[in-house]
Every structure is written in structure tokens, then in C-alpha cells.
Amino acid sequence: MDVPLEEPPKFTLTSVADYAPLIGGEAADRILMKAERLRDFHVVNINSTYYGGGVAELLSSLTLLMNSAGIRTGWRVIQGRPDFFSVTKKMHNALQGAEIYLTDQKMRIYEEVAYENAVRVHLDHDMVIVHDPQPLPLICHYKRKAPWVWRCHVDLSAPNPSLWSYLKPYIERYDAAVFSLPEYAQNLTTPQRFIAPAINPFSTTNMELSESEIDERIARYNIPTDLPLVVQISRFDKWKDPQGVIEAFRIARKQVDCTLVLVGNVATDDPEGQEVFESICQCEEERIRVLSVQDSVLVNALQRRAAVVLQKSIREGFGLTVTEAMWKGAAVIGGRAGGIKHQIEDGVSGFLVDSVEQAAERIVQLLSDEKLRASLGKHAHESVRQRFLMTRLMEDWLDLIGAFETVFKLKASSDTVWEVR
Ligand code: UDP
Hints:
The chain is α/β, with parallel strands linked by helices. The protein folds into 2 domains: 16-198 and 389-403, 3-Layer(aba) Sandwich (Rossmann fold); 211-387, Glycogen Phosphorylase B (Rossmann fold), CATH 3.40.50.2000. Helix content is 40%, strand content 13%. The chain has helices at 20-23, 25-37, 54-68, 82-95, 104-120, 161-171, 211-220, 242-252, 273-281, 296-305, 320-327, 340-343, 356-367, 370-387, 390-403, and strands spanning 42-47, 72-77, 127-131, 148-151, 176-179, 192-194, 229-233, 259-264, 288-292, 308-311, 332-335, 351-353. The strands form 2 sheets. A 6-stranded parallel β-sheet has the order 2-1-3-4-5-6, with helices on one face. Strands 9-8-7-10-11-12 form a 6-stranded parallel β-sheet, sandwiched between helices. Helix 2 runs parallel beside helix 15 and helix 8 packs across helix 13 (356-367). The radius of gyration is 22 Å and the shape is globular. The protein starts with 19 loop residues before the first helix and ends in an 18-residue tail after the last helix. 46% of the residues are buried. Uridine-5'-diphosphate is lined by residues 53-54, 57, 205, 233-235, 263-265, 294, 296, 299, 319-321, 324.
């Protein structure tokens, strides 16, 4: 097998030891010991985009951290034509509760692209982790030599029943299904586990920035800073409710002067993003800025400089942007949906809202009360430190890998049946 050449250490990877000042030396040692037991274990992650959206963000950090601890963790991305991504976006929407008209043609496109990818993607790993619905049917095309895990990141509080019954036979071929929250549990024969996502505090999105770096980055986009900033940073997606954010801002602005900045990007596997972006652009005015860019330093700078960060989602498997902003001590207002309900403790580490009117009220309240903002931000940072750093996510995966009973005998027999304890 070909492996990267050993090079002089021009670049360094963030390692579990780098987290010790944040999580404590004992926790870091415990995680490293668990990793040591799985040294040279070969894992592959498969999803449908290298860029845009939380899954890509998670995988870029987690795969490197796992490798830094000796677990050979890879990442493959499936290829698909636009019609494939149009079908899978409809599926994504339907998993979050939208209607779907699942025609034979759509199913054929979905299944055919999975087959084509399986022909190209050669897998000889000790574990295969498949993310979200796009690559789900891949499993049908392999003679399995290792456990396969389906990791679904979307908000499964109310999946569309007809889509769920179509996908269920695929899911039940897997050895385990992993969802972000226990409340997303489904009626499945496959064992289900629950792992919440997490953030990398050392990434470009989250690393410390000086005041001058923040100023410089915000000025680069001509964002006015004469008034307090209210910010939402999200893929352009209807579930993130950008229109609701604009309405809430307009109501709030009758009482407190401020500027709204909506920053977003469009993931390569999301064909609806451009349309959502264009519809929001129509609302642009002097105090409403809409930017479509991929600039992680800008995301970081805005989350640090904002007086209020909004994430007014209607459905949200788990909002990384919420946790990122909380890590920076921001005062965050989140929609009372999916994972956000568990990320924010209402009134302690941020606010949860159910409507445009409530969001507007909270914006006004926060902009008028600097002490409250600081107090929420302090609790927010601490709650992320305790629950949502990348090392906790890595440990959860190490535990899951270790929970496959025959983990050390995987290569012994191709007839092995894997059971997750
Ligand atoms: N993000 C970004 N630029 C943007 C919008 C989002 O870099 O313009 C990043 C954001 O910082 C976060 C991820 O994309 O890391 C979005 O993850 P989240 O879980 O919030 O939402 P998803 O897009 O997965 O629904």
C-alpha cells in the first residue's frame, strides 16, 4: 500500500495533546490511550462534498485529528451529475419533513449514481462510515469485509414517511446508524447510536483573531461597523430561514439601530442554494448586507465582532455555526429546532425562539443590554468547552469503533458478522 512519504515537519497537525489546556491532561491521555488500542486501524468516510456545509467542516478536522493519533482515517467524496444532486437535495428536504414525489426516474438516478461510484471507489478498510443520504445505497455494491456505519446528520424529528420507507431497506443493511440526538431515533432493526457533532477550536473558522485582524477582514467586504452588527452565517437554505431573519431584523430596527449581515455559501451538493441567495439579495438595502463568499476568516471575524448572532433555523440536525459562535462568547439567538435546542440553554447560554416576533424581541433586548450579552457569552463558551470540542467527538467515535465486538478480527473471515455492543 502507498502511504505519504515522511517529510521534514514543515507542517504540523493539531493533535489531541494540543487540546489538553482546554479539556485537561487526564481527558487527553484517556483519548490517546483509546486511540492507541486502535492504532493503524483503517477507516474511510464517504460523503458528497468536500466543501460547504457542516459535514465537510467536520470531516476536514476529524479525519486529521484521528490520523494524528495513529488511526488511518480517509475521506472519499462521491461524484454525481446535477440531476443526482437535485434528487438528493429533495431527499434531504424530505428527511427534514418536506413533501417529496418519488418517481421511478428519481429512484433510478439515485441508485444508478451509487452503483457508478461503487465501481470507482475501491474499499479495503476496517470500517466504512457513510454520511447522509447521498451515498447511502453504496453498501449494496460491495462484498463486505468490514462493518459499515451510516452517519446521518440531518434533523430527523419528522422524516417524510414515504421517503423513509424507501430508504429504510438501505439503512438496515448497515451495522449501525448514528444520529446527532436520541430524539432522532427511528424504528429500525439496525442498532442506533447518538453522537453530537463538535468544532475544532484551532481551525481558521475558530482560531483566535486579534482586533486588528477582525477589523481588517470586515473592512475587506465594506461591512459598515458604525452600528452594532446582527449576523447570520449559513448555507443559503430555506431551513435556515433567512427571510425570517430579515423580518425579525426589520421589526427590531424600529426600536434599536443596527446592521444585519447575512453571509452564506453554497455547497457543491446543494442545487437550491443559488435560488435562495438570489431571493435574499432582493432584500438588500443600506443596513442589510448579503454576501455569498467562502471565507472562513470572515466567518470567524463576524462571529467575534457581532453584537448578536442569529441562527433562526426551522430544522437543524445540529448547527455548527451556533456552537462556533458560542465558542467565541457571542450572544446567540437560535430557532427552537433540532440540535439547537440542546446546544443553547435558553436564557443561560443564549436564547431560543419560536417565531419572527420573538427573535425581534430578543434582538432588541440583547442590543440594549451589554451585560446580558457578556453573561450569555461566558456561559456559552464554557458549555462548548465542556461538550462540543472535537476531542469529545473523536472519543465518541473511538468508543463506537471499539464497540464492534469482533473489531480485532475483522480481517480474519469474510463471513464475520459484526455486532455493535
Ligand atoms: N460556513 C462557512 N461559510 C458560510 C456559511 C457556513 O464557512 O458562508 C460554515 C460554518 O462556519 C459551519 C458550516 O459551514 O462550519 C455549516 O455547518 P452547520 O452545521 O451550521 O450547517 P449545515 O450547512 O451543515 O446545514
